[in-house]
Write a structure and sequence with these properties.
Blueprint (H helix, E strand, L loop, with lengths): L4 E6 L5 E5 L7 E3 L2 H15 L2 E4 L10 E2 L13
Parallel strand pairs: 1-4
Antiparallel strand pairs: 1-2, 2-3, 4-5
Pfam families: DUF2188
Protein name: DUF2188 domain-containing protein
InterPro entries: DUF2188
Length: 78
């Protein structure tokens, strides 16, 4: 089963977008990345998906899984 992903990406016209994987249009647009992250985190929890934030340059930073993670951490203490 393929995992679902939600990305927080910079919008070329300014601000930040929350998008589902392979979506052509954003689910929602935000002026601040902080607001985009909060909304996207809530959606990822509802969907049981992976939240993948991007930096302004497009690089991925600190993804987090809220669903059935195919590669869970080995350290069960945290």
């Amino acid at each position: 089963m393929a995992r679902k992903e939600r990305h927080v990406v910079p919008n070329p016209d300014g601000g930040w977008d929350s998008k589902r994987e392979n979506a052509k249009r954003a689910s929602k647009h935000f002026d601040k990345k902080e607001d985009a992250m909060k909304w996207s985190r809530d959606k990822a929890k509802q969907e049981g998906s992976e939240l993948i934030p991007h930096k302004r340059d497009g690089k991925i930073q600190n993804p987090n899984s809220y669903g059935n993670d195919p590669n869970p951490p080995k350290d069960k203490k945290h």
